[in-house]
Amino acid sequence: MKSPRHSADTAAAPAPASRCDYGDADPFQWDTREDCEVRQILDRIGDKWSLLVIALLDVRTLRFTELRREIDGISQRMLTVTLRQLERDGLVKRTVHPVVPPRVEYQLTPLGRTLHTTINALVVWTEKHQNEIAASRAEYDRRAEAEARTAV
Amino acid sequence: MKSPRHSADTAAAPAPASRCDYGDADPFQWDTREDCEVRQILDRIGDKWSLLVIALLDVRTLRFTELRREIDGISQRMLTVTLRQLERDGLVKRTVHPVVPPRVEYQLTPLGRTLHTTINALVVWTEKHQNEIAASRAEYDRRAEAEARTAV
DNA sequence: CGGAATCCGGTCGGATACTG
DNA sequence: CAGTATCCGACCGGATTCCG
Protein backbone atom coordinates (compact mmCIF):
# COMPACT_ATOMS: atom_id res chain seq x y z
CA MET A 1 0.00 0.00 0.00
CA LYS A 2 1.96 3.01 1.35
CA SER A 3 1.28 5.40 -1.54
CA PRO A 4 2.27 3.98 -4.94
CA ARG A 5 5.24 6.01 -6.17
CA HIS A 6 3.97 5.77 -9.71
CA SER A 7 1.65 8.63 -8.91
CA ALA A 8 4.00 11.11 -10.52
CA ASP A 9 4.20 9.00 -13.67
CA THR A 10 0.69 9.37 -14.91
CA ALA A 11 -1.17 11.67 -12.50
CA ALA A 12 -2.30 15.06 -13.76
CA ALA A 13 -0.78 16.70 -10.66
CA PRO A 14 -3.10 19.68 -10.07
CA ALA A 15 -0.41 21.66 -8.17
CA PRO A 16 -1.51 24.18 -5.51
CA ALA A 17 -0.15 27.11 -7.60
CA SER A 18 0.79 29.19 -4.51
CA ARG A 19 -0.08 32.66 -5.71
CA CYS A 20 2.80 34.54 -4.10
CA ASP A 21 1.78 37.99 -5.32
CA TYR A 22 4.61 40.37 -6.12
CA GLY A 23 5.07 43.86 -5.01
CA ASP A 24 5.49 45.20 -8.54
CA ALA A 25 8.60 47.14 -7.61
CA ASP A 26 11.66 45.24 -6.35
CA PRO A 27 13.07 43.75 -9.54
CA PHE A 28 15.18 41.35 -7.48
CA GLN A 29 12.48 39.92 -5.30
CA TRP A 30 10.95 37.61 -7.86
CA ASP A 31 13.28 34.76 -7.14
CA THR A 32 13.44 34.73 -3.39
CA ARG A 33 10.36 32.54 -3.23
CA GLU A 34 10.79 29.14 -4.72
CA ASP A 35 7.45 28.11 -6.10
CA CYS A 36 6.46 31.19 -8.04
CA GLU A 37 5.33 31.20 -11.63
CA VAL A 38 8.88 31.90 -12.68
CA ARG A 39 9.90 28.56 -11.29
CA GLN A 40 7.01 26.88 -13.05
CA ILE A 41 8.12 27.81 -16.54
CA LEU A 42 11.77 27.55 -15.58
CA ASP A 43 11.18 23.93 -14.71
CA ARG A 44 9.58 23.54 -18.10
CA ILE A 45 12.34 25.06 -20.18
CA GLY A 46 14.92 23.49 -17.93
CA ASP A 47 13.65 19.99 -18.49
CA LYS A 48 15.20 17.66 -20.95
CA TRP A 49 13.02 17.99 -24.03
CA SER A 50 10.60 20.93 -23.96
CA LEU A 51 13.02 23.32 -25.57
CA LEU A 52 13.77 20.96 -28.41
CA VAL A 53 10.10 20.49 -29.11
CA ILE A 54 9.40 24.22 -29.02
CA ALA A 55 12.27 24.98 -31.33
CA LEU A 56 11.18 22.39 -33.86
CA LEU A 57 7.54 23.44 -33.76
CA ASP A 58 8.59 27.02 -34.27
CA VAL A 59 9.79 26.03 -37.72
CA ARG A 60 6.58 24.30 -38.73
CA THR A 61 3.67 22.17 -37.60
CA LEU A 62 4.70 18.58 -37.00
CA ARG A 63 3.05 15.24 -36.36
CA PHE A 64 3.85 13.03 -33.41
CA THR A 65 6.04 10.65 -35.32
CA GLU A 66 7.77 13.45 -37.16
CA LEU A 67 8.75 15.00 -33.87
CA ARG A 68 9.89 11.64 -32.58
CA ARG A 69 12.07 11.06 -35.62
CA GLU A 70 13.38 14.61 -35.65
CA ILE A 71 14.48 14.65 -32.04
CA ASP A 72 16.05 11.23 -32.08
CA GLY A 73 16.86 10.05 -28.62
CA ILE A 74 13.53 10.91 -27.05
CA SER A 75 11.31 8.05 -25.94
CA GLN A 76 7.70 8.08 -27.01
CA ARG A 77 6.77 8.31 -23.39
CA MET A 78 8.70 11.50 -22.81
CA LEU A 79 7.52 12.99 -26.06
CA THR A 80 3.95 12.42 -24.95
CA VAL A 81 4.57 13.79 -21.47
CA THR A 82 6.41 16.83 -22.81
CA LEU A 83 3.73 17.61 -25.36
CA ARG A 84 0.99 17.28 -22.76
CA GLN A 85 2.74 19.72 -20.45
CA LEU A 86 3.31 22.21 -23.23
CA GLU A 87 -0.30 21.86 -24.26
CA ARG A 88 -1.47 22.39 -20.69
CA ASP A 89 0.59 25.56 -20.47
CA GLY A 90 -0.95 26.83 -23.67
CA LEU A 91 2.33 26.82 -25.52
CA VAL A 92 1.39 24.12 -27.99
CA LYS A 93 -1.84 23.40 -29.80
CA ARG A 94 -2.83 19.78 -30.40
CA THR A 95 -5.07 18.97 -33.34
CA VAL A 96 -6.58 15.54 -33.90
CA HIS A 97 -7.80 14.72 -37.39
CA PRO A 98 -10.44 11.97 -37.14
CA VAL A 99 -9.12 9.69 -39.84
CA VAL A 100 -7.93 6.10 -39.85
CA PRO A 101 -4.89 5.96 -39.20
CA PRO A 102 -5.16 8.84 -36.72
CA ARG A 103 -3.37 12.02 -37.61
CA VAL A 104 -2.34 14.34 -34.80
CA GLU A 105 -0.59 17.59 -35.46
CA TYR A 106 1.19 19.87 -33.06
CA GLN A 107 1.85 23.54 -33.57
CA LEU A 108 3.13 26.39 -31.47
CA THR A 109 0.57 28.84 -30.16
CA PRO A 110 1.33 32.57 -30.41
CA LEU A 111 2.31 32.37 -26.75
CA GLY A 112 4.70 29.55 -27.50
CA ARG A 113 6.24 31.60 -30.26
CA THR A 114 6.96 34.53 -28.00
CA LEU A 115 8.56 32.19 -25.50
CA HIS A 116 10.84 30.76 -28.14
CA THR A 117 11.88 34.26 -29.10
CA THR A 118 12.73 35.03 -25.51
CA ILE A 119 14.65 31.81 -25.08
CA ASN A 120 16.75 32.66 -28.08
CA ALA A 121 18.35 35.49 -26.15
CA LEU A 122 19.71 32.88 -23.80
CA VAL A 123 20.99 30.81 -26.67
CA VAL A 124 22.75 33.80 -28.15
CA TRP A 125 24.33 34.52 -24.78
CA THR A 126 25.53 30.96 -24.51
CA GLU A 127 27.03 30.85 -27.96
CA LYS A 128 28.75 34.12 -27.27
CA HIS A 129 30.27 33.02 -23.99
CA GLN A 130 30.74 29.30 -24.37
CA ASN A 131 34.45 29.71 -24.86
CA GLU A 132 34.85 31.64 -21.62
CA ILE A 133 32.86 29.02 -19.78
CA ALA A 134 34.77 26.12 -21.26
CA ALA A 135 38.05 27.84 -20.41
CA SER A 136 36.90 28.51 -16.88
CA ARG A 137 35.91 24.91 -16.41
CA ALA A 138 39.17 23.58 -17.76
CA GLU A 139 41.07 25.92 -15.49
CA TYR A 140 38.98 24.93 -12.48
CA ASP A 141 39.41 21.24 -13.14
CA ARG A 142 43.11 21.59 -13.75
CA ARG A 143 43.54 23.41 -10.46
CA ALA A 144 41.37 20.96 -8.55
CA GLU A 145 43.27 18.01 -9.90
CA ALA A 146 46.63 19.54 -9.07
CA GLU A 147 45.39 20.21 -5.56
CA ALA A 148 44.26 16.62 -5.23
CA ARG A 149 47.75 15.39 -6.11
CA THR A 150 49.49 17.50 -3.47
CA ALA A 151 47.01 16.16 -0.90
CA VAL A 152 48.26 12.64 -1.59
CA MET B 1 31.16 -2.94 -5.71
CA LYS B 2 29.24 -2.43 -8.99
CA SER B 3 29.86 1.32 -9.35
CA PRO B 4 28.75 3.32 -6.28
CA ARG B 5 25.80 5.45 -7.30
CA HIS B 6 27.10 8.25 -5.12
CA SER B 7 29.51 9.11 -7.87
CA ALA B 8 27.29 11.97 -9.03
CA ASP B 9 27.13 13.32 -5.50
CA THR B 10 30.67 14.41 -4.95
CA ALA B 11 32.65 13.64 -8.09
CA ALA B 12 33.97 16.52 -10.15
CA ALA B 13 32.48 14.90 -13.26
CA PRO B 14 34.95 15.96 -15.98
CA ALA B 15 32.31 15.58 -18.72
CA PRO B 16 33.45 14.75 -22.27
CA ALA B 17 32.22 18.15 -23.52
CA SER B 18 31.27 16.84 -26.99
CA ARG B 19 32.27 19.79 -29.12
CA CYS B 20 29.39 19.61 -31.60
CA ASP B 21 30.53 22.55 -33.71
CA TYR B 22 27.80 24.63 -35.25
CA GLY B 23 27.41 25.71 -38.76
CA ASP B 24 27.07 29.38 -37.87
CA ALA B 25 24.01 29.83 -40.05
CA ASP B 26 20.88 27.78 -39.25
CA PRO B 27 19.45 29.59 -36.25
CA PHE B 28 17.28 26.57 -35.45
CA GLN B 29 19.94 23.94 -35.45
CA TRP B 30 21.40 24.72 -32.06
CA ASP B 31 18.96 22.56 -30.19
CA THR B 32 18.76 19.47 -32.31
CA ARG B 33 21.77 18.02 -30.55
CA GLU B 34 21.27 17.34 -26.91
CA ASP B 35 24.62 17.78 -25.23
CA CYS B 36 25.72 21.07 -26.66
CA GLU B 37 26.91 24.02 -24.62
CA VAL B 38 23.40 25.37 -24.68
CA ARG B 39 22.26 22.37 -22.72
CA GLN B 40 25.12 22.79 -20.29
CA ILE B 41 24.10 26.22 -19.10
CA LEU B 42 20.43 25.39 -19.50
CA ASP B 43 20.89 22.61 -17.01
CA ARG B 44 22.53 25.13 -14.75
CA ILE B 45 19.86 27.79 -14.87
CA GLY B 46 17.21 25.13 -14.90
CA ASP B 47 18.38 23.58 -11.68
CA LYS B 48 16.78 24.33 -8.40
CA TRP B 49 19.00 26.99 -6.87
CA SER B 50 21.53 28.53 -9.30
CA LEU B 51 19.21 31.28 -10.38
CA LEU B 52 18.43 32.30 -6.84
CA VAL B 53 22.09 32.50 -5.99
CA ILE B 54 22.91 34.52 -9.09
CA ALA B 55 20.10 36.95 -8.46
CA LEU B 56 21.14 37.53 -4.86
CA LEU B 57 24.80 37.93 -5.71
CA ASP B 58 23.88 40.43 -8.38
CA VAL B 59 22.70 42.72 -5.61
CA ARG B 60 25.86 42.46 -3.57
CA THR B 61 28.69 40.22 -2.40
CA LEU B 62 27.55 37.71 0.19
CA ARG B 63 29.08 35.23 2.59
CA PHE B 64 28.15 31.58 2.69
CA THR B 65 25.93 31.86 5.72
CA GLU B 66 24.31 35.02 4.43
CA LEU B 67 23.33 33.23 1.25
CA ARG B 68 22.07 30.31 3.27
CA ARG B 69 19.92 32.54 5.43
CA GLU B 70 18.73 34.63 2.51
CA ILE B 71 17.55 31.75 0.39
CA ASP B 72 15.88 29.86 3.19
CA GLY B 73 14.95 26.38 2.16
CA ILE B 74 18.29 25.47 0.63
CA SER B 75 20.40 22.86 2.37
CA GLN B 76 24.03 23.65 3.02
CA ARG B 77 24.91 20.77 0.79
CA MET B 78 23.08 22.17 -2.22
CA LEU B 79 24.35 25.65 -1.55
CA THR B 80 27.89 24.30 -1.64
CA VAL B 81 27.27 22.23 -4.74
CA THR B 82 25.57 25.11 -6.52
CA LEU B 83 28.30 27.57 -5.66
CA ARG B 84 30.99 25.17 -6.81
CA GLN B 85 29.28 24.71 -10.17
CA LEU B 86 28.84 28.44 -10.64
CA GLU B 87 32.46 28.97 -9.70
CA ARG B 88 33.57 26.31 -12.13
CA ASP B 89 31.63 27.99 -14.91
CA GLY B 90 33.26 31.30 -14.11
CA LEU B 91 29.99 32.91 -13.10
CA VAL B 92 30.88 33.37 -9.46
CA LYS B 93 34.14 34.36 -7.78
CA ARG B 94 35.01 32.75 -4.44
CA THR B 95 37.27 34.63 -2.05
CA VAL B 96 38.67 33.07 1.11
CA HIS B 97 39.91 35.41 3.79
CA PRO B 98 42.44 33.59 5.96
CA VAL B 99 41.10 34.57 9.35
CA VAL B 100 39.81 32.57 12.29
CA PRO B 101 36.77 32.02 11.99
CA PRO B 102 37.08 31.60 8.20
CA ARG B 103 35.39 34.21 6.07
CA VAL B 104 34.40 33.24 2.53
CA GLU B 105 32.77 35.71 0.20
CA TYR B 106 31.03 35.11 -3.08
CA GLN B 107 30.49 37.64 -5.80
CA LEU B 108 29.27 37.58 -9.36
CA THR B 109 31.87 37.82 -12.10
CA PRO B 110 31.22 40.17 -15.02
CA LEU B 111 30.20 37.07 -16.95
CA GLY B 112 27.72 36.14 -14.25
CA ARG B 113 26.29 39.64 -14.40
CA THR B 114 25.61 39.46 -18.10
CA LEU B 115 23.92 36.12 -17.61
CA HIS B 116 21.62 37.54 -14.98
CA THR B 117 20.70 40.33 -17.34
CA THR B 118 19.83 37.82 -20.02
CA ILE B 119 17.83 35.70 -17.63
CA ASN B 120 15.77 38.69 -16.64
CA ALA B 121 14.22 38.74 -20.09
CA LEU B 122 12.78 35.37 -19.29
CA VAL B 123 11.47 36.59 -15.97
CA VAL B 124 9.80 39.53 -17.62
CA TRP B 125 8.22 37.21 -20.14
CA THR B 126 6.90 35.00 -17.39
CA GLU B 127 5.45 37.81 -15.35
CA LYS B 128 3.81 39.15 -18.45
CA HIS B 129 2.22 35.87 -19.44
CA GLN B 130 1.66 34.08 -16.15
CA ASN B 131 -2.04 34.82 -16.29
CA GLU B 132 -2.42 33.25 -19.70
CA ILE B 133 -0.53 30.20 -18.57
CA ALA B 134 -2.51 29.83 -15.37
CA ALA B 135 -5.75 30.19 -17.31
CA SER B 136 -4.64 27.64 -19.87
CA ARG B 137 -3.77 25.17 -17.15
CA ALA B 138 -7.03 25.63 -15.34
CA GLU B 139 -8.92 25.14 -18.59
CA TYR B 140 -6.91 22.06 -19.45
CA ASP B 141 -7.41 20.50 -16.04
CA ARG B 142 -11.12 21.32 -16.05
CA ARG B 143 -11.53 19.67 -19.43
CA ALA B 144 -9.46 16.64 -18.45
CA GLU B 145 -11.45 16.12 -15.29
CA ALA B 146 -14.76 16.42 -17.10
CA GLU B 147 -13.56 13.88 -19.63
CA ALA B 148 -12.55 11.52 -16.85
CA ARG B 149 -16.05 11.65 -15.42
CA THR B 150 -17.77 10.74 -18.67
CA ALA B 151 -15.36 7.82 -19.02
CA VAL B 152 -16.69 6.38 -15.74
C1' DC C 1 32.13 29.50 9.96
C1' DG C 2 32.30 26.88 5.90
C1' DG C 3 32.40 23.14 4.36
C1' DA C 4 33.04 17.36 3.14
C1' DA C 5 31.20 12.64 3.48
C1' DT C 6 27.55 9.55 3.86
C1' DC C 7 22.91 7.88 3.69
C1' DC C 8 18.61 7.76 1.61
C1' DG C 9 13.86 8.75 -0.34
C1' DG C 10 11.52 10.75 -4.26
C1' DT C 11 11.46 11.84 -8.93
C1' DC C 12 12.89 11.83 -13.87
C1' DG C 13 13.18 9.45 -17.71
C1' DG C 14 14.22 5.02 -20.60
C1' DA C 15 12.58 0.22 -22.14
C1' DT C 16 9.01 -2.55 -23.01
C1' DA C 17 4.35 -4.28 -23.84
C1' DC C 18 -0.26 -3.41 -25.09
C1' DT C 19 -4.36 -0.67 -27.38
C1' DG C 20 -7.88 1.84 -30.59
C1' DC D 1 -0.19 6.13 -36.10
C1' DA D 2 -0.48 7.84 -31.64
C1' DG D 3 -0.64 6.93 -27.80
C1' DT D 4 -1.31 4.37 -22.44
C1' DA D 5 0.39 1.43 -18.65
C1' DT D 6 4.07 -0.67 -15.97
C1' DC D 7 8.38 -1.54 -14.35
C1' DC D 8 12.75 -0.03 -13.00
C1' DG D 9 17.43 2.11 -12.85
C1' DA D 10 19.79 6.58 -12.40
C1' DC D 11 20.17 10.80 -10.45
C1' DC D 12 18.82 14.93 -7.70
C1' DG D 13 18.54 16.96 -3.58
C1' DG D 14 17.43 16.85 1.73
C1' DA D 15 19.01 15.36 6.50
C1' DT D 16 22.55 14.20 9.29
C1' DT D 17 27.18 13.77 10.96
C1' DC D 18 31.88 15.09 11.25
C1' DC D 19 35.97 18.19 10.47
C1' DG D 20 39.65 22.32 10.25
Features:
homodimer; 152 residues; mainly alpha; 6 helices; elongated; DNA-binding; HTH hxlR-type domain-containing protein (chains A, B); WH_DNA-bd_sf (chains A, B); HTH_HxlR (chains A, B); transcription regulation (chains A, B)
Structure description:
The structure is a homodimer. By secondary structure, chain A is mainly α. Chain A has helices at about 5-10, 35-45, 50-60, 65-70, 75-90, 110-150, and strands spanning about 60-65, 90-95, 105-110. A three-stranded antiparallel β-sheet of chain A has the order 1-3-2. The longest helix of chain A is centred in the last third of the chain and has 42 residues, at about 110-150. Chain A is elongated, with a radius of gyration of 21 Å. The interface between A and B is large, with 57 and 57 residues. Chain A binds a DNA duplex (20 and 20 nucleotides) through helix 1, helix 4 and helix 5. Chains A, B: InterPro entries: HTH_HxlR, WH-like_DNA-bd_sf, WH_DNA-bd_sf. Chains A, B: Keywords: DNA-binding, Transcription, Transcription regulation.
Total E-strand runs of chain A: 3
- Please give the order of strands in the largest beta sheet of chain A: 1-3-2
Please give the largest β-sheet of chain A: 3 strands, antiparallel
Question: Low-confidence segments of chain A, ≥5 residues, pLDDT <50?
Answer: 1-27
The whole-number mean of residue pLDDT values of chain A reads 80
Radius of gyration of chain A: 21 Å
Number of helices of chain A: 6
Multimeric status of the protein: homodimer
Helix content of chain A: 55-70%
Ends distance of chain A:
50 Å
Per the principal axes of the C-alpha atoms, what is the gross shape of chain A?
elongated
| Secondary-structure element order of chain A, N to C | HHHEHHEEH
Largest interface, chains and sizes: A-B, 57 and 57 residues
Which percent range describes the beta-strand content of chain A? 5-15%
* Class computed from helices, strands and strand pairing of chain A: mainly alpha
